[in-house]
């Protein structure tokens, strides 16, 4: 097998990249010292997390001169995400830390406010273009290559790519092109930025090709095979979900979520059944046992197979929630890690894993294990993000008890410091609490369109822990604002009252949470048919929508949801094979 060298310098989900490279027919060899760089032909510099952390680690380990030499010698180099950012002079994220300086531009942070006053979520998480190609031409400073039928490293104008970042390289027409770079751009809200950039032997992508399905694998393959330019695959690819045609046929009614496609997530609640096998289950208001005699745990299928099925149906992300791991120690939960490993071999979209991420003591060894250690295990097994439930509520309570002081020690803070906030999702399990008037409670209330049996018209949303078994005196607004301050990058917003009810999302809850934070929010609980997805995207500015039961029971496929959205004029990612 031909080889490619990967720089091993920081934590992160490198497994997915290795899987993607192997899928392209290449073998990975690790670079573990600057000496190894000299012996390498093709190098990939993956990057997740913090620009300063990445560049300082590279610098203190002595890699920077070796990488400079490698690039100057004309050997192929590919930087992914922070690996692309490393090519530039610096970043607002760490002003005192210099980059490689190959391109004299600095990265800026996305503002949560667009110029027209509308809002966008930060970090930017989702699927966007890398298609409008610009290259220097003899007569003008920049030439749009989109219509020429030429593809740069396999990039396709109708494909979408997975981005997750808070910092970006602003695109100024002609600037990079004058220096000989070819640039592919994406637009998020009011900001057009560099999605991919290449010159000679160097390629960088802000998006994650290893998480961008077949479209991303094409880019990796083109780099590995040294195919800089080729005929565009725009007509050659065969979307299984022909939503791109539906999108094309419709007038553009929708710019997506600030340019991102409407993100659809399939969620698999996993737990051991009564025979001890890990199965996908699904509750009604979190009760996962059958109502009939015997009350077995509902068994809806095998996790790895179901994840793959949803990937081939076009799911933009897959989430696993290990729903009983608040009881058990996930370090002992090797089958769950194995599920992640096997899933990441065939599912090339982001994978999130939740359940049991907290400081604990391993019952087998009596040794203390931190939330960060647990997260590390999950990342090393193929997770891109970890989701924290119960521990986030307890951390938020401590945050308020200490007068909003950040301890730096919570799982959210330690994991986001090491892996970046974009890798930390907080899963919220709220329950409605009805009151007659806001003055009855100190919590954040909303007037509800569905009063309770006693006619009470106001609700607050109480946070719960341990899978809804324990309700706390903390409301969702308090929770999400606290975890945002701690560095969480995304909110997975369940609703216990709606879970498994198939009557649509809790729009009041979603509106309340969206107005409280800038990080992306995923709507969860209640989806029973494709029009519920349309409703949540039209009536709220939620960033993604998650479904579980309706997919597991085979009532609808992810593809049907996307087709429905596309027909309704909402922007979705076409699935490509
Ligand atoms: O507290 O950090 O150990 O994490 C435990 C995780 O497990 C939390 O994210 C919590 O939401 C989840 N969880 C715990 N118990 C249950 C249960 O169902 N008994 N599941 C549970 C949460 C909610 C969603 C579900 C949506 C959509 N499940 O995952 O998929 O409600 O369902 P629908 O579309 O069928 O309505 P920790």
Automatic annotation (TrEMBL):
<feature type="active site" description="For GATase activity">
    <location>
        <position position="210"/>
    </location>
</feature>
<dbReference type="GO" id="GO:0004359">
    <property type="term" value="F:glutaminase activity"/>
</dbReference>
<dbReference type="InterPro" id="IPR004651">
    <property type="entry name" value="HisF"/>
</dbReference>
<feature type="region of interest" description="PRFAR binding">
    <location>
        <begin position="525"/>
        <end position="526"/>
    </location>
</feature>
<keyword id="KW-0368">Histidine biosynthesis</keyword>
<keyword id="KW-0456">Lyase</keyword>
<dbReference type="GO" id="GO:0000107">
    <property type="term" value="F:imidazoleglycerol-phosphate synthase activity"/>
</dbReference>
<comment type="similarity">
    <text>Belongs to the HisA/HisF family.</text>
</comment>
<dbReference type="InterPro" id="IPR014640">
    <property type="entry name" value="IGPS_HisHF"/>
</dbReference>
<dbReference type="InterPro" id="IPR013785">
    <property type="entry name" value="Aldolase_TIM"/>
</dbReference>
<dbReference type="Pfam" id="PF00117">
    <property type="entry name" value="GATase"/>
</dbReference>
<dbReference type="InterPro" id="IPR011060">
    <property type="entry name" value="RibuloseP-bd_barrel"/>
</dbReference>
<feature type="domain" description="Glutamine amidotransferase">
    <location>
        <begin position="6"/>
        <end position="214"/>
    </location>
</feature>
<feature type="binding site">
    <location>
        <position position="356"/>
    </location>
    <ligand>
        <name>substrate</name>
    </ligand>
</feature>
<keyword id="KW-0378">Hydrolase</keyword>
<feature type="binding site">
    <location>
        <position position="494"/>
    </location>
    <ligand>
        <name>substrate</name>
    </ligand>
</feature>
<feature type="active site" description="For GATase activity">
    <location>
        <position position="81"/>
    </location>
</feature>
<feature type="region of interest" description="PRFAR binding">
    <location>
        <begin position="548"/>
        <end position="549"/>
    </location>
</feature>
<feature type="region of interest" description="PRFAR binding">
    <location>
        <begin position="389"/>
        <end position="390"/>
    </location>
</feature>
<feature type="region of interest" description="PRFAR binding">
    <location>
        <begin position="499"/>
        <end position="500"/>
    </location>
</feature>
<comment type="pathway">
    <text>Amino-acid biosynthesis; L-histidine biosynthesis; L-histidine from 5-phospho-alpha-D-ribose 1-diphosphate: step 5/9.</text>
</comment>
<dbReference type="InterPro" id="IPR017926">
    <property type="entry name" value="GATASE"/>
</dbReference>
<dbReference type="InterPro" id="IPR050064">
    <property type="entry name" value="IGPS_HisA/HisF"/>
</dbReference>
<feature type="binding site" description="covalent">
    <location>
        <position position="81"/>
    </location>
    <ligand>
        <name>L-glutamine</name>
    </ligand>
</feature>
<keyword id="KW-0315">Glutamine amidotransferase</keyword>
<dbReference type="Pfam" id="PF00977">
    <property type="entry name" value="His_biosynth"/>
</dbReference>
<protein>
    <recommendedName>
        <fullName>Imidazole glycerol phosphate synthase hisHF</fullName>
        <ecNumber>3.5.1.2</ecNumber>
    </recommendedName>
</protein>
<dbReference type="GO" id="GO:0016829">
    <property type="term" value="F:lyase activity"/>
</dbReference>
<feature type="active site">
    <location>
        <position position="429"/>
    </location>
</feature>
<feature type="region of interest" description="PRFAR binding">
    <location>
        <begin position="427"/>
        <end position="429"/>
    </location>
</feature>
<dbReference type="InterPro" id="IPR029062">
    <property type="entry name" value="Class_I_gatase-like"/>
</dbReference>
<keyword id="KW-0028">Amino-acid biosynthesis</keyword>
<dbReference type="InterPro" id="IPR010139">
    <property type="entry name" value="Imidazole-glycPsynth_HisH"/>
</dbReference>
<comment type="similarity">
    <text>In the C-terminal section; belongs to the HisA/HisF family.</text>
</comment>
<keyword id="KW-0511">Multifunctional enzyme</keyword>
<comment type="function">
    <text>IGPS catalyzes the conversion of PRFAR and glutamine to IGP, AICAR and glutamate. The glutaminase domain produces the ammonia necessary for the cyclase domain to produce IGP and AICAR from PRFAR. The ammonia is channeled to the active site of the cyclase domain.</text>
</comment>
<feature type="active site" description="For GATase activity">
    <location>
        <position position="208"/>
    </location>
</feature>
<dbReference type="GO" id="GO:0000105">
    <property type="term" value="P:L-histidine biosynthetic process"/>
</dbReference>
<dbReference type="InterPro" id="IPR006062">
    <property type="entry name" value="His_biosynth"/>
</dbReference>
<feature type="active site">
    <location>
        <position position="269"/>
    </location>
</feature>
